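Thread: sanity check for a docking pose with flavin-adenine dinucleotide

Original post by kr_44:
Hi all, I'm comparing my docking run against an independent structure prediction. Below are the sequence and the ligand SMILES. Could someone generate the full complex and paste the structure tokens? I mainly care about where the ligand ends up relative to the chain.
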Amino acid sequence: MNLQEVEHHLGRLVKGSVLCMESMQKHTSWRIGGPAEIMVLPASADDIGQCLQFARERHIPLTVMGNGSNLLVKDNGIRGIVLKISRGFNKIVVSGPNITAEAGALVPLVAKKAAEAGLSGLEFAAGIPASIGGAVIMNAGAHGQGIDEVIREVTVLTPAGEMLVLKKEDIGFRYRKSGIDKNLIILQADFVLTPGDPLEIRAKNETNLIKRRRSQPLEYPSAGSVFANPPGQWAGWLIEQVGGKGMRVGDALVSEKHANFIVNVGRATAEDVLQLIAQIKQKVFEKFNIELKLEVQVVGE
Ligand SMILES: Cc1cc2nc3c(=O)[nH]c(=O)nc-3n(C[C@H](O)[C@H](O)[C@H](O)COP(=O)(O)OP(=O)(O)OC[C@H]3O[C@@H](n4cnc5c(N)ncnc54)[C@H](O)[C@@H]3O)c2cc1C
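Reply from moderator J.T.:
Ran it for you. Here is the predicted complex with flavin-adenine dinucleotide included:
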């Protein structure tokens, strides 16, 4: 089956959109990456199921993504189908102290809704540019807190198309990681929050956003922290100590504001970023004997 046929068949199966040779620069916060051969933007859980089944039956590789804020897509793009779970599958429902959010809902919007409803617990997440699905997979966190602290359960779709509800205790959350099998697709997350004063919660959200604007180079495309913090260390501090700030390959630059951010100051390629990553890792290893591990995920060819 050629790409046009895949696009045509999928277009008939799903209510959402199907795009062919879609540039991943439009779908990643780094604004980097070659094309996705086929991209599906699902409008429902049924669309996700249809897409999964279609890919499985035809042995077409399937890559799931959320808001693309933690992805480095290589310059030759992604083969097969990219299932981008975002707008179109983003309902947020507040009920008492609980919030249920579909995987494509943006975390800052869920935090805003929580504040409006007078529910505390998601203030730390106000500025994390993640989808709920991506935030759960990465156990996104900030200001000493993680999404795992407020999760009650997560609904996933198995490769066989079965829906499963995973209780928080069974998810195996760790620092910037969850134990969710990579073959499972997150459909929604249920949060349990604590009633509080809406004005205070909103003020905390705002304070966290201000801190973020002060410490992060938000004026340039990036993917947030490139490296995970090694146990008991700050990756940004280690990079700063080896003179990493200002290191540059092509248009990929280590930010002067935050050494763990590589920013795209123009037309950086994935190759530029990967070379810069290799140089930083080498310098940190030579000086500290510490092997930095990537927090961003590298996908594609
Ligand atoms: C400016 C900036 C600031 C940031 N600040 C923070 C921060 O403070 N704290 C923090 O933790 N992170 C931060 N990040 C990184 C990023 O926002 C998080 O890693 C986030 O959790 C990624 O979510 P996403 O929806 O963009 O996922 P993507 O980048 O699209 O995908 C990340 C991973 O999740 C998987 N995935 C996504 N959705 C699903 C789904 N529905 N089902 C199954 N798998 C899925 C993908 O396959 C991939 O492996 C920042 C990024 C930027 C650009």
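The pocket of flavin-adenine dinucleotide is lined by residues 29, 64-71, 85, 103, 128-131, 133-135, 137-138, 140-142, 185-186, 216, 218, 222-224, 297 (CB under 6 Å). Hope that helps with the comparison, let us know if your pose agrees.
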